[in-house]
Design goal:
The complex is a heterotrimer of chains A (246), B (316) and C (291).
Chain A (H helix, E strand, L loop, with lengths): L7 E12 L2 E12 L3 E5 L6 H8 L7 E6 L2 E2 L5 H7 L1 E3 L12 H9 L5 H14 L15 H14 L4 E5 L7 H14 L6 E5 L3 H7 L2 E6 L2 E6 L1 H6 L1 H13 L1
Parallel strand pairs in A: 3-8, 3-9, 6-7, 7-8
Antiparallel strand pairs in A: 1-2, 1-4, 4-5, 9-10
Helix pairs in contact in A: 3-4, 3-5, 4-5
Chain B lengths: L3 H20 L3 H24 L8 H17 L5 H23 L4 H21 L22 H21 L1 H18 L4 H27 L9 H14 L6 H17 L5 H15 L3 H8 L18
Helix pairs in contact in B: 1-6, 2-6, 2-8, 2-9, 2-10, 3-4, 3-5, 3-8, 4-8, 6-8, 9-10, 9-11, 9-12, 10-11
Chain C lengths: L1 H31 L6 H21 L4 H26 L8 H23 L13 E4 L2 E4 H23 L1 H11 L1 H6 L4 H23 L9 H16 L4 H21 L4 H16 L9
Antiparallel strand pairs in C: 1-2
The chains are: A alpha/beta (246), B mainly alpha (316), C mainly alpha (291).
Chain lengths: 246, 316, 291
């Protein structure tokens, strides 16, 4: 990990993605700062997932610049992004179902830890997420809520500076959501870390995020604190428009 | 890393195999034992690459490269036989790494078929090189006469060492990464694992073993020709894996033991090797998709599905 | 110029059989996502039946062309029956399972190798020319027999192309090849369509086998040679693509023709492999391939 620029963990400028004439992301510009939980929200089809895939290096952008922890990203190289300190989860099944929880977590520990330290790292991460009792279960056998925790645990085990979560709360009940929010709250307390969150669960987003960026039709609609966003007319219209259409 | 039951199984298995290789006197049976050992090595190598989700159908080409390299070094360059085999193996591993680097971007059926095309193209290449004996092949590949009584032991010991390495790799974090690559490669990549390097390393080691198998094949048969290394060799290796069971490390070994013995036995009846292998594969694939190992596993009582008690709140 | 025309004609002739062969391979992959190695034997069986029956029929007094038609019909029927059995008792259970179906097809290849050897013997057979003589087209010499082969091959390719584009069955096949789950949700009877797809592919291989009998020596192993080239053509063109199969087949035929003319024909195998590598380096799914 490069300890170059400690404040700005993610700097995105002029980011655009075109799919054969359809503009999925339009000239996006934002920053994620150390210590914050940053939310990326927007109505369906706003381009959240595409943006997420772009910054984590999983799809190439049409134009733009992305800097992770001060390192300039080249296109579509997840390895470079994670080396710079960005780890992301996936919307669906961000775990290896056929392996035990223990082995899944171990995947996260491989790059950052020497072989002799990995066992301890797994146990520590499992404890953080309340998975200690499930370490030897096959992940595909677990209920949905636990599987989501496993996904997060794999990412957290890799100790990223910028933890990027793609809709981590989908399908979780109130208690499970509370557990996750606590974990996130604790995670960013450590020096030099931040969390980027794509989410649909408005209540949770408003509760936990320090800053929120609202996307609409792939472009920046509004940025600000939860209070700012809550009262923002344009944002309300964008969402209302969606529910009218739906 | 190795559980105590595994260690005991290994000691028993290795001990029995090595003992057999020392005690068997009948020339024909010794040659069958050599064939079983080499076949088992190939089958395990093939399954190793299957762990990452790809079918290395080019394996026969690499066996051939190892065989010809070892044969050439021994006959034309007078390299000591054990060294020839070792260098052949290393060379094959390096060539396969280059092959993998170029071809692994093609996945699934494309990678499979490229392996097939590669095998056939290399076969043609051997027959064009006079130094390698052309279409009639290379003859006179002999280990020193003093080794004659010890060859089965040498072959078996070499194979067992390589099998052990495959086993350790599979049970280690390397194996876990391969499993992840097969099922959810993007998750491995997202936590910083360089899956490309892992894939190359897997092919390289699997084909290093194939090259060694080729070298062993050359010295055991004393004569090699391009026809030995056709896609059928890969097909047979695949048969051993499938019939024995692809879900367990020992599956391919069991498959090799069973099918090679079966064909040796059937030769006594003017047997049709292809027909029997083919029949066995078709039957197993249709009736016992998980092979012998799978059938055995099915006979054990299934583990109960456990739900955590203290975390009822986390369940739906 | 003369040479080019002759080479072009040779390419078309060789390519014609590859086209028929690879169309079947690509169709099966497109619809069922399986790599079918037994295709070669379906082709070989038709050729073997024709090579076996023709001398008998002619010896029995039937005129050569009529005997050829009868023998071909028999050969195609036997091949189709074989294909149907293989599908119904085997591949039907392995759709979308690449490794499983591949292993099954390898088993069937080995099995059929033995069966064909026992039934037809290892000897190679020659079949007398049905359409004697040769013609001169734009300066290139082509035997009537081979011209007939070309004609039928490209006619079949055209019919297939038209079927895929303009019939209900064709649309169903394409729908299944593109997105089989969506197709099923729209009411396409997947199992039946897959079966038809397999039969059509086998029919193409059978016709190819019947066509090849008079122009080539027929032995139980001819299937393998065409299988290799057929798959290479299909990789280059892109698994699942009909135009890709045609393009790829012509490509392979061209390399083989040029290779045979300027160098030793066996270098063609190496050249073709190099070609595959180059194509896949830039287009990992073949020139026109889809997932």
């Amino acid at each position: 990990m490069q300890p170059s620029n400690n404040d700005v963990l993610l700097r995105v400028s002029g980011l655009s993605k075109r799919f054969d004439g359809l503009v999925a992301v339009d000239n996006l510009e934002f920053e994620v700062l150390s210590g914050e939980i940053f939310g990326l929200i927007g109505p369906n089809g706003a381009g959240k997932s595409t943006t997420f895939n772009l910054i984590s290096g999983f799809i190439p952008w049409t134009t733009g610049k992305v800097q992770v922890c001060g390192k300039e990203m080249r296109r579509a190289k997840p390895l470079v992004a994670s080396e710079a300190g960005l780890v992301r989860t996936f919307q669906h099944g961000s775990y290896v179902g056929g392996m035990s929880v223990r082995d899944n977590l171990r995947l996260g520990t491989i790059v950052r830890n020497k072989a002799s330290d990995r066992d301890a790292a797994v146990l520590e991460t499992a404890q953080r997420l309340g998975l200690s009792d499930y370490l030897d279960e096959t992940t595909s056998n677990l209920p949905h809520g636990l599987q989501r925790l496993v996904s997060m645990a794999i990412a957290i085990a890799a100790q990223p500076r910028l933890l990027c979560l793609d809709e981590p709360l989908t399908g979780l009940n109130e208690t499970e959501v509370a557990t996750v929010l606590n974990v996130l709250h604790d995670y960013r307390k450590t020096e030099g870390r931040a969390i980027l969150l794509v989410e649909h669960n408005m209540k949770a987003v408003m509760r936990i995020c320090d800053r929120i960026l609202v996307l609409h039709h792939g472009a920046h609609l509004a940025t600000g604190s939860p209070e700012d966003i809550r009262g923002n007319k344009a944002v309300i219209e964008a969402y209302l428009g969606e529910s009218h259409a739906a | 890393m190795l559980k105590s039951t595994s260690t005991i199984s290994w000691l028993v298995f290795a001990g029995a195999a090595l003992l057999l290789s020392l005690l068997l006197q009948d020339l024909y049976l010794r040659s069958v034992l050599n064939l079983i050992a080499i076949s088992a090595l190939l089958a395990v190598s093939l399954r190793f690459v299957m762990l990452m989700g790809e079918l290395n159908f080019a394996i026969a080409a690499f066996v051939g490269i190892g065989a010809y390299a070892a044969g050439y070094m021994s006959t034309a360059m007078e390299v000591p036989f054990w060294l020839a085999i070792l260098i052949a193996g290393i060379g094959t591993g390096i060539v396969s790494a280059a092959f993998g680097a170029v071809t692994l971007r093609a996945k699934g059926p494309y990678f499979l078929l490229i392996g097939f095309a590669f095998t056939e193209a290399i076969r043609v290449a051997y027959s064009k090189v006079p130094a390698l004996g052309g279409t009639s092949g290379m003859v006179g590949i002999f280990p020193p006469i003093a080794m004659d009584p010890w060859m089965p032991f040498f072959v078996m010991a070499t194979v067992i060492v390589l099998l052990l390495i495959f086993f350790i790799l599979e049970r280690s974090d390397f194996g876990r990464v391969l499993f992840a690559i097969r099922e959810k490669e993007e998750v491995a990549r997202s936590v910083g694992i360089n899956t490309f390097i892992y894939k190359i390393a897997t092919i390289a080691f699997a084909c290093f073993a194939a090259g060694i198998a080729g070298g062993l094949h050359a010295f055991v048969n004393n004569v090699i020709s391009p026809g030995d290394f056709s896609y059928l060799m890969a097909a047979f290796a695949l048969a051993y894996v499938k019939v024995g069971g692809e879900d367990h490390f020992f599956g391919p070994i069991l498959g090799a033991i069973f099918l090679v013995s079966l064909s040796a036995y059937s030769l006594g009846f003017g047997g049709d090797e292809h027909f029997i292998y083919g029949g066995a594969i078709v039957l197993v694939v249709l009736l016992l998709p998980k092979g012998a190992v799978g059938a055995i596993a099915n006979m054990r009582p299934k583990k109960a599905h456990v739900k955590g008690g203290g975390h009822a709140a986390l369940e739906q | 110029m003369q040479t080019f025309i002759q080479l072009g004609a040779t390419t078309l002739q060789i390519g014609a059989v590859y086209v028929l062969f690879s169309l079947g391979l690509t169709l099966i992959f497109g619809v069922m996502r399986i790599v079918n190695f037994v295709h070669g034997h379906i082709f070989a069986v038709a050729a073997l039946v024709v090579a076996y029956l023709l001398p008998i029929l002619v010896g029995g007094g039937l005129a050569a062309p009529a005997a050829y038609v009868v023998a071909s019909a028999c050969g195609i029927a036997v091949s189709l029956a074989l294909g149907a059995i293989i599908y119904l008792f085997g591949f039907r259970y392995f759709q979308r399972d690449l490794v499983g179906s591949f292993i099954l097809s390898i088993g069937l290849v080995l099995l059929l190798d033995g069966v064909l050897l026992h039934v037809f013997g290892g000897a190679v057979r020659g079949v007398p020319e049905i359409f004697p003589g040769s013609v001169n087209i734009a300066g290139a010499q082509i035997t009537v027999q081979r011209l007939f082969l070309c004609g039928v091959a490209f006619l079949m390719a055209g019919i297939l192309y038209w079927t895929l584009g303009h019939t209900k069955l064709g649309r169903a096949l394409r729908a299944v090849a593109y997105d089989h789950e969506a197709a099923m949700m729209m009411g396409v009877p997947y199992a039946r369509i897959a079966f038809f797809g397999f039969l059509i592919a086998s029919l193409l291989a059978a016709i190819a086998g019947a066509l090849i009998a008079p122009v080539s020596i027929v032995s139980p192993v001819i299937g393998t040679d065409y299988l290799i080239k057929g798959f290479i053509a299909v990789i280059i063109g892109g698994l699942g693509s009909v135009p890709g199969a045609i393009l790829g087949s012509l490509f392979v035929a061209l390399v083989e023709t040029l290779g045979g003319y300027y160098f030793d024909s066996s270098y063609a195998a190496i050249a073709i492999f190099a070609l595959v590598i180059v194509v896949l380096l830039f287009r990992p799914k073949g020139m026109m391939g889809r997932a």
